[in-house]
Structures are given as C-alpha cells and as structure tokens.
C-alpha cells in the first residue's frame, strides 16, 4: 500500500514536470512570431534602397549624356554640321580621275565615213563595203582594218550604223550634155555584217534596212538609213557595213557613221 502510494506520487510528479516542460517552450514560440515581422521589414527597406539607387544611377547617366551633347555642340555650328557631308560628296564627284578611267576602260569605237571613192554607177544594186575615217574617229580597245571593226574583248555590245544617200544633177553635167542617171526606182539598202570567229569567220547579216526611192532627176534628194542592236561578240570577231548604190553616199561624217560599245560581259 505504501509502495502504491509512492508510485502514485511519482506519477503525479512526472505529470507536473511534463506540464512545466511544455510551459518552458511557450516563450520560444512567442519570440518566433516577433522576429518574422522584423525580417519582412528589413527586406522591404533593402528593396526600397535598391530601387532608389537604380533611379539615382539612371538620372546620373542621363545628365551625363546631356552634358556631353551640350558641351560638344557649341564648338561646331549647326549649319556646318549639316552641310559638311554634302560638300564632301560634291568634292568626291568632281574628282576627274574616276569618270575618265571608267570611260576609257570600255571597249568602244565611233568612225565617220572616209573619203568617198568614185564608185561605178554600173551594177547599182551591188552592195559595197564602206571605208571609214580612222584618223578622225575614235577607237578604244577595238581594232580597225579595211572597213572592218575588230573585236578585241569578248562581251555584249551595242552596234549602230547610219548611212545617208543623196542625189542631185549638177549644172555642169547638164551643160556638158551628160546623160542623167535614172533614179526613178533606186534601192538604197544598208547591211551590217558580223564575221564570227567561232564559225571560221563566216559573214552573217546582223541588221538590214533600206527603201526603194523614186526621186526627181532635177532636184536635190536625200535619204538616210539608221539601225542598231545588241549582240554577243567574241574576241576575233569583225563588223562591217555594206550598202547598195555606194556612189550616192553622203560624204559628211555627221550623216554617215559606224560604231560599237561594250555594255557588259
């Protein structure tokens, strides 16, 4: 009975100790609730400080850029800053060497008619090759031989030709009693030929134009034929012009000429 009583008292003591131990932890829980708002407040203050510092840096940089722009502007007037690139561009275009070099580099030729020959009036419709005036013409990187333009560089060329025919009966012929030439049904035809080096220099008609004229014997008459086209030419090719009734050719170079210019490869 005494043992039982002592055990009961020990049980009660243990119960009291347990309750006392539970009460010891209560202050810890209350301190945890106290630290949590303090932590949130500290984080909020740090965030505000970071935002404020970022804004301050941005304002500082903006003010620095404005200061640089304003400090550099007074040294050069606005008009000078705007017009200087334009003046530099004009100076570049006025340099003489560039345009001259590009122009001279293009293979090209322009030849006026040479001295007219005393072509026979017999066989009037027979086509004869025209001789050109090399001395008073222009050639660059193109050859010339016996009425033919010689291609020295392969590429795509523009070819052009113009021939003028004229006829009138001089008063000396009438006084001398020479019989007039019948020009009442005259064929005036212009051919431009191409000799291809790839086809053993075989001649092919590149262009053809002309007309049949009915002229008055006693008055001045004139007719001009003109044509042009692009064609691919190879090094070693040749070009020449044939005309019918060559004895009627106008001897002036402004009316009868032949030429070519390279446009590209």
TrEMBL record:
<dbReference type="Pfam" id="PF00229">
    <property type="entry name" value="TNF"/>
</dbReference>
<dbReference type="GO" id="GO:0005125">
    <property type="term" value="F:cytokine activity"/>
</dbReference>
<keyword id="KW-0202">Cytokine</keyword>
<dbReference type="GO" id="GO:0005164">
    <property type="term" value="F:tumor necrosis factor receptor binding"/>
</dbReference>
<protein>
    <submittedName>
        <fullName>TNF superfamily member 11</fullName>
    </submittedName>
</protein>
<keyword id="KW-0812">Transmembrane</keyword>
<dbReference type="GO" id="GO:0016020">
    <property type="term" value="C:membrane"/>
</dbReference>
<keyword id="KW-0472">Membrane</keyword>
<keyword id="KW-1133">Transmembrane helix</keyword>
<dbReference type="InterPro" id="IPR006052">
    <property type="entry name" value="TNF_dom"/>
</dbReference>
<comment type="similarity">
    <text>Belongs to the tumor necrosis factor family.</text>
</comment>
<feature type="transmembrane region" description="Helical">
    <location>
        <begin position="38"/>
        <end position="61"/>
    </location>
</feature>
<dbReference type="InterPro" id="IPR021184">
    <property type="entry name" value="TNF_CS"/>
</dbReference>
<dbReference type="GO" id="GO:0009612">
    <property type="term" value="P:response to mechanical stimulus"/>
</dbReference>
<dbReference type="InterPro" id="IPR008983">
    <property type="entry name" value="Tumour_necrosis_fac-like_dom"/>
</dbReference>
<dbReference type="GO" id="GO:0005615">
    <property type="term" value="C:extracellular space"/>
</dbReference>
<dbReference type="GO" id="GO:0006955">
    <property type="term" value="P:immune response"/>
</dbReference>
<feature type="domain" description="THD">
    <location>
        <begin position="107"/>
        <end position="263"/>
    </location>
</feature>
């Amino acid at each position: 009975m005494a043992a039982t009583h002592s055990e009961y008292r020990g049980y009660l003591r243990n119960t009291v100790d347990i309750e006392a131990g539970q009460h010891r932890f209560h202050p810890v829980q209350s301190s945890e609730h106290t630290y949590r708002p303090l932590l949130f407040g500290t984080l909020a203050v740090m965030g505000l400080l970071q935002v404020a510092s970022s804004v301050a840096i941005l304002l500082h940089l903006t003010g620095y850029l404005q200061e640089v722009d304003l400090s550099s502007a007074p040294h050069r007037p606005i008009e000078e800053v705007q017009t200087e690139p334009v003046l530099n561009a004009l100076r570049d275009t006025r340099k003489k060497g560039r345009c001259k070099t590009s122009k001279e580099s293009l293979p090209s030729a322009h030849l006026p008619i040479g001295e007219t020959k005393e072509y026979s009036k017999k066989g009037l419709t027979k086509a004869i090759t025209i001789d050109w005036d090399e001395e008073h013409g222009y050639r660059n990187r193109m050859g010339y031989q016996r009425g033919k333009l010689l291609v020295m560089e392969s590429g795509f060329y523009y070819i052009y030709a113009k021939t003028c025919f004229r006829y009138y009966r001089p008063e000396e012929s009438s006084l001398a009693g020479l019989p007039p030439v019948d020009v009442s049904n005259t064929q005036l035809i212009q051919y431009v030929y191409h000799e291809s080096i790839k086809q053993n220099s075989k001649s092919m008609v590149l262009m053809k134009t002309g007309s049949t004229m009915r002229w008055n014997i006693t008055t001045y008459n004139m007719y001009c034929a003109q044509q042009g086209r692009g064609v691919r030419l190879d090094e070693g090719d040749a070009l020449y012009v044939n005309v019918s009734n060559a004895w009627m050719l106008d001897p002036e170079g402004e009316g009868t000429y032949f030429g070519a210019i390279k446009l590209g490869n």
